[in-house]
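Weekly structure sync, notes
Attendees: PL (lead), two postdocs, one rotation student
Agenda item 3: pending single-chain targets
PL asked that the sequence for the first pending target be pasted directly into the notes so everyone works from the same version. It is reproduced below exactly as submitted, 123 residues in total.
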Amino acid sequence: MLFQPPVFETIFRTPVAHRLVIRGSRSRGAPMDGVCWYHDEFDAAGALVARYETYDETDEAGRERCGWRRYDAAGRFVARHEVTMRWSALVALKQSRRGAEIALQRLGGQPVPPPRTRPGLAA
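Predicted structure, written out during the meeting:
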Protein backbone atom coordinates (compact mmCIF):
# COMPACT_ATOMS: atom_id res chain seq x y z
CA MET A 1 0.00 0.00 0.00
CA LEU A 2 1.28 3.46 -0.92
CA PHE A 3 1.85 5.74 2.08
CA GLN A 4 -0.62 8.61 2.07
CA PRO A 5 0.21 11.36 4.55
CA PRO A 6 -2.61 13.16 6.34
CA VAL A 7 -4.33 16.22 4.96
CA PHE A 8 -2.60 18.65 7.30
CA GLU A 9 -5.22 21.40 6.89
CA THR A 10 -7.77 18.98 8.40
CA ILE A 11 -5.57 18.06 11.36
CA PHE A 12 -4.64 21.68 12.16
CA ARG A 13 -8.19 22.92 11.49
CA THR A 14 -6.76 25.56 9.18
CA PRO A 15 -9.39 28.24 8.38
CA VAL A 16 -10.41 28.36 4.72
CA ALA A 17 -9.03 31.91 4.34
CA HIS A 18 -5.61 30.80 5.62
CA ARG A 19 -2.83 29.18 3.63
CA LEU A 20 -0.73 26.25 4.86
CA VAL A 21 2.70 26.04 3.24
CA ILE A 22 5.06 23.09 3.64
CA ARG A 23 8.61 24.19 4.52
CA GLY A 24 10.02 20.71 4.19
CA SER A 25 10.17 17.19 5.53
CA ARG A 26 12.78 14.82 6.91
CA SER A 27 12.87 11.06 7.12
CA ARG A 28 15.20 8.74 8.96
CA GLY A 29 15.94 5.03 9.17
CA ALA A 30 16.79 2.51 11.87
CA PRO A 31 17.08 2.30 14.81
CA MET A 32 14.63 5.22 14.78
CA ASP A 33 12.27 5.21 11.85
CA GLY A 34 9.97 7.97 10.78
CA VAL A 35 9.18 11.15 8.96
CA CYS A 36 8.59 14.73 10.11
CA TRP A 37 6.88 17.54 8.18
CA TYR A 38 7.23 21.29 8.77
CA HIS A 39 4.46 23.76 7.84
CA ASP A 40 3.80 27.49 8.14
CA GLU A 41 0.27 28.87 8.39
CA PHE A 42 -0.44 32.33 6.96
CA ASP A 43 -3.61 34.39 7.42
CA ALA A 44 -5.55 36.03 4.56
CA ALA A 45 -3.28 39.09 4.73
CA GLY A 46 -0.16 36.92 4.39
CA ALA A 47 1.01 37.25 8.00
CA LEU A 48 2.56 34.21 9.68
CA VAL A 49 0.08 32.80 12.20
CA ALA A 50 1.66 29.53 13.29
CA ARG A 51 4.32 26.92 12.59
CA TYR A 52 3.76 23.17 12.86
CA GLU A 53 5.86 20.03 13.22
CA THR A 54 4.02 16.81 12.38
CA TYR A 55 5.63 13.41 12.91
CA ASP A 56 5.08 9.70 12.32
CA GLU A 57 7.78 7.60 13.95
CA THR A 58 9.09 4.67 15.93
CA ASP A 59 11.74 5.59 18.51
CA GLU A 60 14.86 3.64 19.51
CA ALA A 61 12.89 1.71 22.17
CA GLY A 62 10.32 0.61 19.56
CA ARG A 63 7.55 2.94 20.77
CA GLU A 64 5.31 4.12 17.96
CA ARG A 65 3.67 7.54 17.78
CA CYS A 66 2.31 10.18 15.47
CA GLY A 67 1.22 13.68 16.26
CA TRP A 68 1.91 17.37 15.93
CA ARG A 69 3.23 20.43 17.73
CA ARG A 70 2.07 24.00 17.12
CA TYR A 71 4.19 27.11 17.67
CA ASP A 72 2.95 30.71 17.45
CA ALA A 73 4.43 33.25 15.03
CA ALA A 74 7.13 34.13 17.60
CA GLY A 75 8.21 30.49 17.86
CA ARG A 76 6.64 29.77 21.28
CA PHE A 77 5.24 26.28 21.83
CA VAL A 78 1.44 26.54 21.99
CA ALA A 79 -0.15 23.08 21.72
CA ARG A 80 0.43 19.46 20.80
CA HIS A 81 -1.39 16.20 20.30
CA GLU A 82 0.03 12.71 20.00
CA VAL A 83 -1.29 9.17 19.67
CA THR A 84 0.69 6.05 20.51
CA MET A 85 0.63 4.42 17.09
CA ARG A 86 1.97 5.04 13.61
CA TRP A 87 -0.14 6.90 11.04
CA SER A 88 -0.88 3.71 9.05
CA ALA A 89 -2.14 1.95 12.20
CA LEU A 90 -4.34 4.93 13.06
CA VAL A 91 -5.84 4.88 9.54
CA ALA A 92 -6.53 1.14 9.92
CA LEU A 93 -8.07 1.62 13.38
CA LYS A 94 -10.35 4.44 12.21
CA GLN A 95 -11.02 2.60 8.91
CA SER A 96 -10.30 5.71 6.85
CA ARG A 97 -7.72 8.41 6.37
CA ARG A 98 -10.37 11.04 7.15
CA GLY A 99 -11.23 9.30 10.45
CA ALA A 100 -7.54 9.23 11.38
CA GLU A 101 -7.18 12.94 10.56
CA ILE A 102 -10.12 13.76 12.81
CA ALA A 103 -8.59 11.65 15.61
CA LEU A 104 -5.41 13.72 15.32
CA GLN A 105 -7.26 17.06 15.53
CA ARG A 106 -7.78 17.03 19.30
CA LEU A 107 -9.66 20.28 19.68
CA GLY A 108 -7.43 22.80 21.35
CA GLY A 109 -4.53 20.36 21.68
CA GLN A 110 -2.67 20.31 24.97
CA PRO A 111 -1.97 23.93 25.93
CA VAL A 112 1.29 24.97 27.49
CA PRO A 113 0.68 26.27 31.03
CA PRO A 114 1.52 29.93 31.66
CA PRO A 115 5.07 30.48 33.02
CA ARG A 116 3.82 30.99 36.60
CA THR A 117 2.26 27.53 36.80
CA ARG A 118 5.06 25.51 35.27
CA PRO A 119 6.72 23.19 37.79
CA GLY A 120 10.00 24.52 39.14
CA LEU A 121 9.34 28.16 38.27
CA ALA A 122 8.71 30.80 40.88
CA ALA A 123 5.41 32.68 40.74
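Discussion points:
- The CA atoms of residues 79 and 111 lie 5 Å apart.
- Helices lie at 8-12, 87-94, 97-105.
Action: rotation student to compare against the earlier draft before next sync.
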